[in-house]
Structures are given as structure tokens and as C-alpha cells.
């Protein structure tokens, strides 16, 4: 069974930082269910080999468990945690970072008619499906290469390409394919997301960000909400609060200074929104802030 072997491979190769010797390939082992925490999703394929995880993106909640996979096609702020993980039965996961250039190359080389038609509308940036046997088999073969470093140099890129092909032709192919299309609505939103992340301390007019993303204001609002489950202003707030939490990890006593650095003019508003987001005011969140951050995307 592919899932049984996948569990064994993840257990054998899991490291504390979730990285592996193969570029863009991650494996994780989590031995306890922790409270939900906020981080960035990454652009990633995540396959659960054992256990279950729940992610919240805006007002949407995604749950996936053993034998299922999640696709995240835009790097967005999410809140998540493993819901089934114990030392005796740890949560085990595989992840592969999705690169737009690799998806685009695959789409360009596909023959006419090889790709199923894409429905109308803008897909969400996240989706969950049952993992077909062909996808699980390719994931297992990729992780087997960790035991054969000489073979991995040549074969790992080929197997990663096969995994991408299984994704773009699979049930959630529309989500993955838009990642590689330079003129897709998802790519326009991704440009806006990146601009807001780079300038999160600044106030902005939505009209200006819409123009930067190459969309009309009405189309921008509609597509941004479809992809991120948030308005542009809500998205900026999420980025500000996550950045503040990172800064407070090293400056736990400078709440006012940190609130100003991330763009808040009112420290009291910052404290209210921080508590709403993380469940405790900044002054009481120091212990969690000092916990080591995981290297893997939140989806894994």
C-alpha cells in the first residue's frame, strides 16, 4: 500500500526543520496537537500520511487527513494546527513547494487536448481532495530517492515533474494550472498580494492596487475575495499582525514601538486586534512568541 510506505518513509526521513536533501521537498512529523497558530501557507502541495490538520483562510476552513492532499497556490496568511497527533501516533506529512515556472513549463509542453477544460470563474487559492493512487505512488517514489542520493540528482526532477502533471490533470488542476498562467486572474491577485506584503506598513487605496494588478476595481475586489477569502484591507491587517508577532519575539517589552513599526497609529487598536487574532494581548504572548518557528509552509 502506497500510504503505508509513505508513513514509513516520512518517519525515517523527518527532521526538526522538515527539510530533506531534495530541493523543495519537505516531510514533517508532529507528535502533539497544539493550539492553532498563524503563519504563511506557502505555495505547496501537502499530503497527509497519518493524522489530520485544519487550516483557516479568512472565513474558510479546510480539513485534510490521511490519504488526502491540500493545494495552496498563493502564499497567504492562515491559521492552522494538527488535530490528530500523539507521540504514539504522530501526524505525518509530505510537502512539495510549487514553483510557477515549473507549472508554466509543463503547461507549454502539454499537447492540445491533454489538459481537461477549466471551468469559469476564479478558483480559490486552496483546495482539498482525496489523493489518487497515481499521485501517492509518485510521492512514494520521490521519497525513496532520499535513500539513494546518487539516483536522486537525475531522477528527482523527473518524479517532481510527474507529481505536477498528476496535479494539473487532477481534480484540483484548475487551482494548480492558474499558478503557471501569467495572465490568469489568480496571477493578477498574486501580484497584488505580493505588493501588499512588500508595503504592508503603508496605507493604500484599493484603486491603486487594482491598477497595479492589471484589473478593474470591481474585478479586483471580486477576484481578491475569491482567492484569499479576505478583502485587501483585511489581508493587510493579517500581514501586519503576523509581522508584529515575529518582532515581539525579540522585543517583547516594546509593544508600542512594534505597533508603530508595522503601521498602526493607535497602540490600543493594535492590542485589540492582536488579541482577537492570537487569543492573548501582546504582553501575555511572549512564551509562544519565543517558540521556534517551523521551516515548513503552514499547509504541511
Automatic annotation (TrEMBL):
Could you list this entry's UniProt keywords, alphabetically sorted.
DNA-binding, Transcription, Transcription regulation
Region (Disordered) spans which residues?
A: 279-300
Q: Which residues form the HTH araC/xylS-type domain?
A: 190-288
Keyword Coiled coil belongs to the record: no
InterPro entries recorded:
Homeodomain-like_sf (IPR009057), HTH_AraC (IPR018060), HTH_AraC-typ_CS (IPR018062), Tscrpt_reg_HTH_AraC_N (IPR009594)
Q: Known SMART domains for this protein?
A: HTH_ARAC
Record PROSITE patterns = HTH_ARAC_FAMILY_1 (PS00041), HTH_ARAC_FAMILY_2 (PS01124)
Instruction: Provide ranges: composition bias, Low complexity.
Output: 289-300
Name the chain's protein: AraC family transcriptional regulator
> What species is given as this protein's source?
Micromonospora globbae
Amino acid at each position: 500500500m502506497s500510504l503505508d510506505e509513505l508513513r514509513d518513509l516520512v518517519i525515517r526521513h523527518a527532521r526538526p526543520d522538515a527539510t530533506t536533501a531534495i530541493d523543495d521537498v519537505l516531510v514533517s512529523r508532529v507528535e502533539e496537537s497544539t493550539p492553532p497558530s498563524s503563519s504563511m501557507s506557502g505555495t505547496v502541495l501537502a499530503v497527509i500520511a497519518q493524522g489530520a490538520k485544519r487550516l483557516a483562510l479568512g472565513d474558510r476552513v479546510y480539513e485534510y487527513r490521511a490519504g488526502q492532499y491540500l493545494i495552496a497556490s498563493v502564499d497567504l496568511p492562515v491559521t492552522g494546527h494538527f488535530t490528530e497527533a500523539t507521540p504514539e501516533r504522530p501526524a505525518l506529512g509530505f510537502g512539495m513547494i510549487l514553483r510557477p515556472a515549473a507549472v508554466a513549463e509543463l503547461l507549454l509542453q502539454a499537447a492540445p487536448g491533454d489538459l481537461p477544460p477549466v471551468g469559469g470563474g476564479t478558483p480559490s487559492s486552496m483546495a482539498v481532495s482525496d489523493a489518487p493512487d497515481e499521485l501517492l505512488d509518485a510521492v512514494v517514489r520521490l521519497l525513496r530517492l532520499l535513500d539513494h542520493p546518487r539516483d536522486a540528482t537525475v531522477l528527482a526532477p523527473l518524479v517532481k515533474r510527474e507529481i505536477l502533471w498528476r496535479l494539473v490533470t487532477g481534480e484540483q488542476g484548475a487551482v494548480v494550472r492558474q499558478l503557471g498562467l501569467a495572465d490568469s486572474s489568480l496571477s493578477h491577485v498574486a501580484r497584488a498580494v505580493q505588493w501588499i506584503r512588500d508595503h504592508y506598513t503603508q496605507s493604500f487605496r484599493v484603486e491603486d492596487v487594482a491598477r497595479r494588478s492589471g484589473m478593474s476595481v470591481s474585478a479586483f475586489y471580486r477576484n481578491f475575495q475569491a482567492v484569499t477569502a479576505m478583502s485587501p484591507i483585511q489581508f493587510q491587517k493579517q500581514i501586519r499582525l503576523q509581522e508584529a508577532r515575529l518582532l515581539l519575539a525579540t522585543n517583547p517589552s516594546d509593544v508600542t514601538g512594534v505597533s508603530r513599526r508595522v503601521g498602526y497609529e493607535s497602540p490600543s487598536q493594535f492590542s485589540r486586534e492582536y488579541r482577537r487574532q492570537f487569543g492573548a494581548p501582546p504582553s501575555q504572548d511572549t512564551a509562544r512568541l519565543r517558540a521556534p518557528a517551523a521551516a515548513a509552509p503552514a499547509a504541511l
